[in-house]
Structure formats: C-alpha cells, structure tokens
C-alpha cells in the first residue's frame, strides 16, 4: 500500500510541476512576476518528485555528483516539456513566441531525457538521433511559423487568445 501511495504522489507532483512549468514558461511574457513564481514552484515540484522517486521509491543511493546530475537534468527536462506543453496549450495567445518554444522544447527535453536516463549510444547513433531531432524541430518550427503568420497575429507578445477575454 505504501508503494501505491508513494508512486501516486510522485505522479501528482510530476504532473503538477509540469503543468505549472508550462504555464510559467508560456505566459511569463504577459506577467513576469506572477508567472516567474508559478514557474519556480513548478520546477521545484518536478525536482522534488524526481528526487523522491529516485531516493525513496527506487532506493537509489546517489553520490553528490549523481544528485547534482539528477537535479540539473530534471530541471532541463521539465523546462523542455513545459515549453512543448505550454506552447501547445497557448498557441493562440502568442503564436510567434510559441513557434520558437515548441521546437526548442523538443530538443531540450529529448537531450535531457537521454542524459538523465543514461542512454549510452554509440557516437554514430548519437549523431543520427540528434540530427533527426533537430530536423523534426526545424519542420515543426517552419509549420508553426507559417501558421502564426496566417493567423494575423504577428506581434511577438500581443495577447490574442481566450485567456485575455473578459479581463481575466
């Protein structure tokens, strides 16, 4: 029963952390102070979930170097996923900004995930995968850029979506 509760708590912490990170990243240009706080809380939750998962659930005894690596790559993974998730959720609010966020988030999260989870690829495989991820990111960037220019909302930080209607 304890294992069930711990694993559930980690998933709640992970998803709350990613949700708050997503909101913080994509909406920060509209209210720097508010969304910086939300971003900080989201990243903190994701790190807490990562450490709890490794130390309590998986019972890994990590060296200081391994602990630092876990924190750094958990942060970059959360930021990358937050860029993708927040970008998808708020494309309408700032399409030009999001056209950069999503592809960059794909590259950041993929690299962070691979390093955090110790995927050891041969040099040729690493190069192939990295080039593939970059090509996918470029294709997505081009597609999103075209979509944003066709929306008639070319101003980088001009609020344009649903969250700005009705004085929220």
UniProtKB/TrEMBL annotation:
Name of the featured protein: Uncharacterized protein
Keywords in alphabetical order: Membrane, Transmembrane, Transmembrane helix
TM region(s), chain numbering: 9-30, 36-56, 68-91, 97-115, 127-147
């Amino acid at each position: 029963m304890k294992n069930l509760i711990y694993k559930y708590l980690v998933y709640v912490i992970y998803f709350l952390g990613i949700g708050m990170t997503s909101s913080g990243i994509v909406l920060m240009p509209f209210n720097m102070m508010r969304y910086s706080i939300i971003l900080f809380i989201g990243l903190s939750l994701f790190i807490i979930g990562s450490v709890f998962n490794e130390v309590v659930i998986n019972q890994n005894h990590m060296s200081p170097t391994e602990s630092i690596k876990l924190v750094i790559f958990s942060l970059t993974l959360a930021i990358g996923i937050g860029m993708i998730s927040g970008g998808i959720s708020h494309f309408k609010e700032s399409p030009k900004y999001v056209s950069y966020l999503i592809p960059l988030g794909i590259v950041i999260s993929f690299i962070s995930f691979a390093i955090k989870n110790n995927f050891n690829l041969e040099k040729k495989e690493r190069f192939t995968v990295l080039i593939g991820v970059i090509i996918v990111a470029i294709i997505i960037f081009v597609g999103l850029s075209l979509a944003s220019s066709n929306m008639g909302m070319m101003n980088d930080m001009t609020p344009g979506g649903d969250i700005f209607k009705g004085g929220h």
